[in-house]
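Hello Y.,

Per our agreement to keep a running log of every chain we model this quarter, I'm adding this entry. I've kept the format consistent with earlier entries: sequence first, then predicted structure.
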Amino acid sequence: MPETESPTIGYYTVVEDEQTGWTGGLLLLNGGGRPLEFQCTLPVRPTRAHEILFGLTLRDHLIGEVIGPLLVRKCRTPIGLLCCDQPEALQIETRINCPVALVEEAAMVDEGPIDDESLVGSTQVQLAGSNLRVAVEQAERVQKLAAVLIDLPDATEPFERIREAIKEAQSQIARPQSSRVPPAAAA
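Predicted structure for the entry above:
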C-alpha cells in the first residue's frame, strides 16, 4: 500500500434475533470513518440438529467460521484492519490476510465482561480512544495502522451503524408483499 493511501478499517458484528436468526454485517471505512463498502448476510438459522451437534460451540462456529469469512470473501475493498465486538470473531484471522482486533469497549457493552481465557496471547493497542486486543504477533503491524488512522473519530460507533443497517435490511425483507402494487395494476 502506498504511504499516501490510508488503510481501510473493517468492522464486523453479528446480530442474533430469535425470530430471524443470525445476521452478520461488515462495514468498511476509510481512515476518516466514511463508509466505503457494506456487506450483510441473509439471516442464518441453524437447524435443531446443528444446535445439538455443535452444542456450546455453535456461537463460535457461526460467528468465526461461517458468517465472518463469508462476509470478508464478499468484500471488493482490501481490508487493512478488521475490528470486531465479539471474541468469537477473532478466529477469522486464520482465514484472512489482515489483523483482527477486538474493540474492548464495544465488546464489554454488547457481551458483558470479556473472558480473559479467550484472549490469551493478545495485547492491547490504542485506536481512536479505544483499546484493541490483538494477537501479540500482530501488535506491531496494528500499531503502525493505528498511527495512520489518526483521523478515525471513534472506534466503537461503527458497530451501531452495522446493527442499524441490519435492522433496516430486515425491516425491508419483512414488509408484506401485498403492499407492493404490481406494475399492471397501477395503470
